Amino acid sequence: MKKTLIAGLSAIFLLYSCNEKKENKPQPIHVYEKDGVKVNAYDYNGLEYFLTKSNDTTYVVNFWATWCVPCVEELPYFEKLNAGYADKKVKVLLVSLDMHKKIESNLIPFIENKKLQSDVVLLRDPDADTWIRKIDTTWSGAIPATIIYNKDNRKFFEQQFTYEELEKELNNFIKP
Amino acid sequence: MKTLKFLGAFAIIGLLFAFTAAKTVSGYQVGDVATDFSLKNIDGKKVSLKDFKDAKGYIVVFTCNHCPYAQAYEDRIVALDKKYKKQGYPVIAINPNNPEKQKDDSFEKMQARAKEKGFTFPYLLDEGQKIYPQYGATKTPHVYVLQKTAKGNVVKYIGAIDDNYEDEAAVTKKYVEDAVNSLLKGKEVSVKETKAIGCSIKA
Fold it and tell me: Within A24-136, where are the H helices?
C-alpha cells in the first residue's frame, strides 16, 4: 500500500515537473506598451530563461541600448541575421538595457522607426554586479555584448560586430 | 628522461605565454601599482597624481560627456569629490574617448559640461588614448580607487560607484564610499571589484 502510494506520488510529481518545464516561461516584471508596441521587462531571474534554452534552435542574444552608438550601428546586422537565417533555426533576441524611464519615450519609438523584427525585451535589474558575472565571467559590463548559443555550444563576445564577423561566428554554430 | 626534460621545457614556455597573454589584455588588478600620468585638464594645465602632495590616495574615474550611464553618475561624482577631497581622496576624472570618434566628448564640450554640472575636480582628456588601456578601463564610468603608499599608488578597488545607476534613492551598496572609508580607517577594502554596465570606450 505504502509502495503504491509512493509510486503514485512520484508519478504525479514527475507529471507536474514536466508540466512545470513547459510552463516555465517567466512572467515579465513589467509590460511597457505604447502605440500597440509591447515590450516585456524581466529581471535577471526571468531573463535567464532566454539565455539557457535547450532545443534545436541557435539563439543570438545581443545586449544593447538606444543610446549606445556602436550598438545602434550593428543592430541592422542582427536584423539581417534574424531574417536571413530564420529557416536555419536561428533566432535573434535583442536585450535592451535602456533606462526604465526612457522606454515609452526612446525605446518604443526606436522599435517603430527602425521597424525592428527581432524580439526585443528589456532587462530591468539594478543588481548589475551579480547578473553581469552570471552572463559571462569575462564581461566587463561594456555594451554592445553578444551571446551565441545552442544546446551544445555557447560563446560570449564583448565587441562590436560587422555583418561578416557575425555571420562567421554564427556559422560555427549551425554547421554540422 | 629526455622526454621529461622536453615536456618540462614545453610547460615552462607555455606558462610564459600564458602570463604575457594575461598581462597584456587585462590592465590592472587590485594590488597593482597604477601609473601616474600628465594629462590636459579643462583649464588647459597638465595634471598628474603627484601634484596632489597631501593626498592619501585618489578616486580615478574614467567618465565622459555623452554616455547616459556616465551622466547618471555626474552628481554623485561631484558629491564624492566634495566629501573625500578634504579627507585626502580627491576625484580625478579622465575622459578616455577619442573625440574624433565621439564628437560629444571633445575638449571644448568637456569644458562646457564641467561648467554646466559644476565639476569640483580635474576633468582630463586622455589624449591619444594612452592611459586608459594601462588601467584596463573598458567603459564609462569605470572607477579605480588608489592608495598612496611607499611603493606607489596601489589599486585598492575597481568597478562601479554604487549598485543602482538609475535611482540614487534605491542604492543599497555604495562601493566607492565603502572602499575609501575602509582605507581612511586603515582597514582592508571588503568589496574590491564590482561590475556594472557602461558605454564602451571609443578609441
Answer: 44-51, 69-84, 108-113, 128-135
Flag if B159 and A70 touch (Cβ within 8 Å). Answer: no
Min Cα–Cα distance to chain A from B172, Å? 10
Residue A61 has pLDDT above 50, yes or no: yes
Q: Contact at 8 Å (CB) between B66 and B190?
A: no
Question: Do B105 and B176 touch, CB atoms closer than 8 A?
Answer: no
List, as ranges, residues 1-60 from A with C-beta within 8 Å of B. none
CA dihedral B32, B33, B39, B45 (to 10 degrees): 140
| Interval B28-77: pLDDT, tens | 999 999 999 999 999 999 999 999 999 999 999 999 999 999 999 999 99
Q: Which CATH number covers residue B94? A: 3.40.30.10
* Residue B159 within any structural domain of the chain: yes
Q: Enumerate the residues of chain B whose CB falls inside 8 A of the CB of residue A97.
A: 197
Separation in Å, CA of A3 to nearest CA in chain B: 51
A164 in B contact zone (CB under 8 Å): no
pLDDT tens-digit readout, A120-142: 999 999 889 999 999 999 999 99
**Residue B8 belongs to a domain:** no
Digit-coded pLDDT (tens) for A2-31? 555 555 555 555 545 444 445 578 999 999
Complex-level ipTM beyond the 0.85 threshold: no
* Rounded Cα–Cα distance for residues B18 and A63 (Å): 30
Chain A CB contacts of B98 under 8 Å are: none
The partner residue sitting opposite A99, judged by closest CB among B166, B170, B195, is B166
Domains of chain A with CATH codes: 26-171 (3.40.30.10)
- Domain of residue B58 covers 28-200
Asked if residue B22 belongs to a domain, the reply is no
